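All the exercises in this workshop are built on plain-text protein records. Sequence and backbone structure share a record, each on its own labelled line. The structure tokens are whole numbers drawn from a learned vocabulary of backbone shapes. The record below serves as our worked example for the rest of this section.
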Amino acid sequence: MTKEKYGYDSVSRLRDVVVRRGEDHGLNFDEIDEAIIIGSGSGAIPEENMNIEKAGEPSGPIILTYEDVLKEAGIIGWSDQVRAFLYILFGRDSGENDTGHKKRLIIGPIVGLGDKPLIVQDGREHLYEGTDPKRAIIWLRLMQLLGVQTIIGSNAAGILTPNTLKEPSIMLINDFLEVNCGDNNPLKGKNESECGVRFPSVTAMYNVAFHEKILDLAREICGSVTDGIYFRAPGPNYETVATVLDMRARLENFWRQGQQQNGLNEWFQGQARGVVGMSTVYELLTIFHAMQSKKHPAFQNLILFFSVLTNYAASLGPNGFVAQLDGEEVQRKANQMKVELLNIIKKILVESRNGNISRMVPVQN
């Protein structure tokens, strides 16, 4: 029977490559159970806080580029390498995509958090690049097989509700919705039971007490942090005015419905809050799938994703149109929030390591 190119067997080989590389560097993967996904414009976080200049040295992290470890694991071959070469030939760095994402894993400690190493996915593989959905989430599958139980992710997003959200700021994602994204669910196709169940539940985010605890911690760093809904659009183009108004209408409608639903009214407090981006949802679907695996249960401790609010979607600000959207400006605004985002992540990791927060443990008032 033909095996999935990016399926369980491939991920198992990828894990073996990463573990071998790490152990050669002196890493003990039994100690590694945390991971961070770095979003657009936030690449300075690992650059400035993981001693990148010491990469490969005993006191520094290890850096593994996607293409390198995939090739060593036998997952990609010569045709994939030709495509990478063509990107280079026509002016694109095969190690970095259009949005400034480095395509690499960094494994090592974060400055200020002791010697405990963690995995940083420095750069996504977006579906709008034409990436196979199962390839885009192979790094999460790798984390699953490595036993990661805590994952914190970030992305850059545009504001759908300018009367309730401002830029630049940070929003904790409390639910998600896809709009016009087509048939690209990474869980589609043959289900590999080692990775998770055929029909996974995706309601694990609905834990009000835990959610409020995370918001309280985040607000100790950045008082304007709030929560809201993340819409995924396919990209790579930004949204039209009509699309944004459609998303806003949907958001405001189901926000009202949530306020009227017993058990959800605490979740949908206040006025509707929402943003739009081009990632994250397919990652969350994979994470929930992995949580429910019997052979490799992962992400059991913390699952948190933050949006860095960099712009108003379709340039629709609180008082009408603002400056036209620009990718470089989005990255600049995201970079403005890098210190707050990093400090929020660090505070959450400290509290988690001290046993004070966990999605699985009831929050003490």
